[in-house]
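user: can you give me the structure for this one chain? tokens are fine.
assistant: on it. calling the predictor now.
[tool input]
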Amino acid sequence: MKKFILLAFAIIAVGALFFIFSGKGVSEELAGKADAILFYGDGCPHCSVVEDFLAANKVEEKVEFEKGEIYHNKKNAEIFVQKGRQCKIEVKNMGVPMLWSDGKCYVGQEEVIQFFKDKMGG
């Protein structure tokens, strides 16, 4: 009986840890500290264009920002809506990719890529 209880406890503990750490990217605590957050969605073709640009130009080595996937991460989606509202974007008009930086939103692959080009000096 003790083995069963210990096994059940271990399964619950592992499940709880998986739930806590399964979210990708931005957490609510981090969202308050991050100067820039790139919101994206898994499978979004425009987000893939931005990701290709980031990789080809090694942007993550040059510009400090956080990423938050919103299609499968409820907390990130909530932060995405909150940041969009701060930028006076109606929820029905919000989409990814969207970059939030210093109280301003950059929406769409062109604006996001231009933001990073500007930050890298060209």
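assistant: here you go. The beta strands are 36-40, 66-69, 98-101, 104-107. The chain has one domain: 25-119.
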